[in-house]
Amino acid sequence: MTEIRFYHLEQRRVDQALPPLLERALEEGRRVLVRASSEEMVAALNERLWTYDDASFLPHGAAGDGDPMEQPIFLTSELENPNASTMLVRLSGADTSEADDAFDLVVFMFDGRDEAALAQARGEWRRLKDQGRTISYWRESDEGGWEQAR
Question: Is the Cα dihedral 65, 55, 112, 85 positive or negative?
Fold first, then answer.
């Protein structure tokens, strides 16, 4: 069964919180699909992942960057999985899909300071709870990591 986690941003922006999450996923041997709300956001994240840290490298790509199967992290705004990912990171505003069961892990990352993003996350939480799904909620810690709320 798919593990579903909600990551509630309260201090950092998505482009700041996403790279460490992706680093950890790669350390765990995961292939990751990041679904953004628009092609503009995909382009911005694609650039950010190249420049976020001079000492780090996150192998990734998006449409037009060659064979998606060569990319352990693939960025898209489409309902697709061209790199055979087992983990989906769905960002605020990205399309909802019943195909989430195709992934072992689905992470909903949303900015709690954005009312529309908060409303979307609450709606998704209710929908998944109504389906009887097991979901978890994570908040940013003061140290910049994540803490599971109980």
Answer: positive
CB of 4 within 8 A of CB of 109?
no
Q: Count of CB atoms within 10 A of residue 143's CB?
A: 7
Task: Choose the weakest-confidence range: 51-55, 76-80, 81-85, 119-123.
Answer: 51-55
DSSP conformational letter for 63: T
Q: Which residues contact 28 (CB under 8 A, 6 or more apart)?
A: none
Residue reference for tokens 């069964």: 1
Q: What is the mean pLDDT of residues 93-110?
A: 85
**Which secondary-structure segment (H or E) carries 91?**
strand 87-91
d(CA 129, CA 150): 16
pLDDT digits (tens, 9 = 90+) for 6-46: 999 999 999 999 999 999 999 999 999 999 999 999 999 99
In this structure, the number of other CB atoms found within 10 A of the CB of residue 112 comes to 15
Q: Which amino acid is at 31?
A: R
What CATH code would you report for 3-143? 3.40.50.10110
